[in-house]
Amino acid sequence: MKSLRKENLNLRLFMSLLLTPLFLCLSLTVSHSQEKRELKAAVVEHKINDPKSAIKIISSKFSKQYSKQHEISKMETYRAVKANGKFIDLKAGKGFFLTRKFDPKSKQGRDFTFFNIDQYSSQSYTSDGHEILEPENIHAKYPLGYNNYMMQDIGFVIRHLIYFSPLNNQYYKHFDYSFSKESGVIHFKSIESKIPKQCKLRCEGDLFYDLETMAVKRMIFTTFDSFLSVQNPQKVNFAHSNYAITDFGYGNSPYLKSIFYVRKWDREAAEKVRILFSPTRRNPQKNNLEEYYFANFEAPVFYMNNNMQVLDHRTYQRRQDVDTVFNRLSMYFMRHELSPYTPALWNKISSSK
Predict the structure, then answer these.
(1) Is the pLDDT of residue 312 over 60?
(2) Which of 29, 195, 315, 339 has a CA that sits 20 to 30 A from residue 331's CA?
(3) What torsion do the CA atoms of 115, 117, 118, 121 make, to the nearest 10 degrees?
């Protein structure tokens, strides 16, 4: 936006130099300099009457600044499962979080990978004698089929949020916007007629941003349904309610600081719907299934080059010790939560909450 304004001012000044006497040219130069300062001040104060224009600036900044490298940061993740009003299962882990090169034009988005160094899991048990806790996953016709992998689930949510929400300058046009009564807050809602071909998310919520920098600080989703993954038409469609809170930080580039995600299986599917993933237990409506996810991320300190070698963000030097860690963690069984649980190491986690 700034570069466009600068080009327009320069063009007008150039035409004035061609068509006016010297004294008028000097006058116009002063006038344009003053106008330029006023425009700059307007950007700082953000006297923007149209919320969509504000979102355009926010999404443009985010899409340009979000990392185009394979970013690596430390992470802690938690998930609790509730059924029939009682918490029945807890999973948690700590390790590294790996993002892929961000491409705003991607039609599918790029995966975010969780590498667990240490994990913890409660001893799962049944509630009131109902057999609702089973092995990690069962591929069967809904409502019996389910998937109990924590990292895969929350990774899908993050991918859809980064790529197909109003943060992406390729997709922000598919939402309606309005200013909230609170300063620095814009309400957004997906345009129903653009789902699913243009808009990949049916969602609604509020975006919080910095009035001076136009940088996103937080997004709250009161609804969050993906139209990217299509449920097998031979099976009954899944239906659920979603709620999410995401906070963003800024280091070398914008990064996801934390995400709190809640999914409740509290409604029947009245129409064909798309899903992010399957429930964590069978018969989710029958058992009043609720799932709570929380992930906390530190600012990225490492990244991978094109040869997938790990470098330090501060020194730009290769870190072979971290290379070794990632070579071990990249094994399939480590990525999918099948590494052994170590309660002794878990007790050393600084943020036990």
Answers:
(1) yes
(2) 315
(3) 30
